């Protein structure tokens, strides 16, 4: 048990990283667009996520009330950038591989804390868990980096007319999903490194007379 403290920390970090990965996937605030035309986008701010784009409008709403309108991305919209669809697939892979990493780590820790001295089984499951953690971290890193690059270069998106979105913003900034994704990457990579560093203790056979 005393040799698996890092692996226990890996499980804790991996759990938090996996949760943050799932949270970032559901958040719409990946890119925050500031637009000049507030005729429809009343607040002047729109949020571009990896599943949909949303904005607040006061049109067709009673005075003093506001409503959030969202348009989900369709797989048939050729105008939507490839990094958005790539982010969808990669984050789904990260969620699945992160869950596999947690499962493998739980199984290995169970054997360790229950005193089951199966060296090959324990070591292999820690290695499998570490591999899945690192794979999940890399799958999160790619869409986070790609979208952050798009934000820093103020890249435009040719939305369909039905979205009521301009093709390019006056300015844009990184939304909450990007820093959450960065933290998830760090935690998943750390947990993967800790899991891969496990070494089964070597015990010397003693003869008692």
Automatic annotation (TrEMBL):
<keyword id="KW-0796">Tight junction</keyword>
<feature type="transmembrane region" description="Helical">
    <location>
        <begin position="169"/>
        <end position="190"/>
    </location>
</feature>
<keyword id="KW-0472">Membrane</keyword>
<protein>
    <submittedName>
        <fullName>CLD34 protein</fullName>
    </submittedName>
</protein>
<keyword id="KW-0812">Transmembrane</keyword>
<keyword id="KW-1133">Transmembrane helix</keyword>
<dbReference type="InterPro" id="IPR004031">
    <property type="entry name" value="PMP22/EMP/MP20/Claudin"/>
</dbReference>
<comment type="similarity">
    <text>Belongs to the claudin family.</text>
</comment>
<feature type="transmembrane region" description="Helical">
    <location>
        <begin position="40"/>
        <end position="59"/>
    </location>
</feature>
<keyword id="KW-1003">Cell membrane</keyword>
<feature type="transmembrane region" description="Helical">
    <location>
        <begin position="121"/>
        <end position="149"/>
    </location>
</feature>
<feature type="transmembrane region" description="Helical">
    <location>
        <begin position="6"/>
        <end position="28"/>
    </location>
</feature>
<dbReference type="GO" id="GO:0005886">
    <property type="term" value="C:plasma membrane"/>
</dbReference>
<dbReference type="Pfam" id="PF13903">
    <property type="entry name" value="Claudin_2"/>
</dbReference>
<keyword id="KW-0965">Cell junction</keyword>
<dbReference type="InterPro" id="IPR006187">
    <property type="entry name" value="Claudin"/>
</dbReference>
<dbReference type="GO" id="GO:0005198">
    <property type="term" value="F:structural molecule activity"/>
</dbReference>
<dbReference type="GO" id="GO:0005923">
    <property type="term" value="C:bicellular tight junction"/>
</dbReference>
<feature type="transmembrane region" description="Helical">
    <location>
        <begin position="84"/>
        <end position="109"/>
    </location>
</feature>
């Amino acid at each position: 048990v005393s040799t698996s403290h890092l692996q226990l920390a890996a499980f804790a970090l991996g759990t938090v990283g996996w949760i943050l990965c799932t949270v970032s996937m559901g958040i719409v605030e990946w890119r925050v667009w500031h637009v000049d035309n507030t005729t429809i986008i009343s607040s002047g701010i729109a949020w571009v996520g990896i599943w949909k784009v949303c904005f607040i409008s006061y049109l067709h709403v009673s005075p003093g009330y506001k409503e959030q309108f969202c348009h989900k991305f369709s797989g048939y919209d050729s105008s939507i950038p490839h990094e958005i669809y790539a982010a969808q697939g990669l984050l789904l892979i990260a969620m699945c591989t992160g869950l596999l990493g947690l499962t493998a780590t739980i199984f290995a820790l169970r054997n360790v804390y229950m005193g089951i001295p199966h060296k090959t089984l324990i070591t292999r499951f820690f290695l499998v868990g570490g591999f899945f953690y690192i794979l999940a971290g890399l799958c999160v890193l790619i869409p986070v980096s790609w979208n952050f690059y798009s934000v820093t270069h103020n890249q435009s998106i040719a939305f369909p007319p039905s979205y009521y979105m301009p093709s390019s913003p006056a300015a844009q900034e990184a939304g909450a999903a990007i820093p959450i994704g960065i933290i998830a990457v760090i935690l998943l990579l750390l947990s993967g490194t800790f899991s891969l560093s496990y070494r089964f203790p070597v015990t010397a056979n003693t003869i008692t007379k």
